[in-house]
Amino acid sequence: xxxxxxxxxxxxxxxxxxxxxxxxxxxxxxxxxxxxxxxxxxxxxxxxxxxxxxxxxxxxxxxxxxxxxxxxxxxxxxxxxxxxxxxxxxxxxxxxxxxxxxxxxxxxxxxxxxxxxxxxxxxxxxxxxxxxxxxxxxxxxxxxxxxxxxxxxxxxxxxxxxxxxxxxxxxxxxxxxxxxxxxxxxxxxxxxxxxxxxxxxxxxxxxxxxxxxxxxxxxxxxxxxxxxxxxxxxxxxxxxxxxxxxxxxxxxxxxxxxxxxxxxxxxxxxxxxxxxxxxxxxxxxxxxxxxxxxxxxxxxxxxxxxxxxxxxxxxxxxxxxxxxxxxxxxxxxxxxxxxxxxxxxxxxxxxxxxxxxxxxxxxxxxxxxxxxxxxxxxxxxxxxxxxxxxxxxxxxxxxxxxxxxxxxxxxxxxxxxxxxxxxxxxxxxxxxx
Length: 433
What we know:
Largest sheet: 2 strands, antiparallel
Mean pLDDT: 93
Radius of gyration: 21 Å
Distance between the termini: 65 Å
């Protein structure tokens, strides 16, 4: 029978996960230059609308319809046909509550990718590319891991989305940002966040939403949800330390951006493991996750020279990979009898399954993103040109601006410190015309 408490918790968790997408918009929006703040926020908000409709119409049945050869769900639940008020198999909640919960996951995932190509993608190309990505990359991967597909059959564990959400989005973001090319002036002039308090506010709401993200994946108000809730917080706090301490040692100063990035890194790392590990291992997972992600952002990115604008790959891609491996190390059936024991509990099979799943996610994200990018770029222009980058995507793509201060003066409040007076003149001329 339907349990009212379990149903209430899943619906509350769905609402918490919903908050994560506008929170991400603020988190990313504060880190770009002021001339691109609205364009960055718009990408997350538009995805929230577009992908939610897509998921209801076709995404849910692709991910959670009856399995077809381990690859995809059938079309038996197209447009939520037959879902009604049925109880979700193996649970105590209506299937519609599960649809709502999973819909929020589907909407958040492509929004994470936008951080990698922020400040340089035209809106039409972005919208088409993200819609195709949601249908043809996210939905199949969700089925492979959560819908009874071949990775689930292999024994891979992903409690709340390390493989499906973070590795897939992070690696796809890296692929797309390389295909797009670097932002104008990248590596030559300072490109700095225009509103750090906005980023901190976004991070705070992400942290709150993550409790629904992870603990809600227990699909009930129970001991597993309580464990997932606590390990989520423990890993996030450890992630702050794991990022800030090496940053402090290496750069001489601890930064606020580093602290919130570390928190997100810890949250990403614990996501696949939240329903399978105990509290003390979660601290180690978050601590290592913060340090590993900091190294990816501060060292790996600099050495390889790619322009991942807001470090979607460094935080989500690398953090998700570490979290999936950590699940293979610390998972224990003492926490979740439906899971498996990891390497530190005497079994190696889970770790092998996790490594295979990571490789599958990386290959699928890279190849799928390249193919979709090439197809979309054949029909529409994806990359903003140099003049449009100077002008800023807020005005070029949306006819709006986030701030009125210093509009024609070339002030840093609008353009960012790297813009020159000549570029300000170009902006003024184009706006008049």
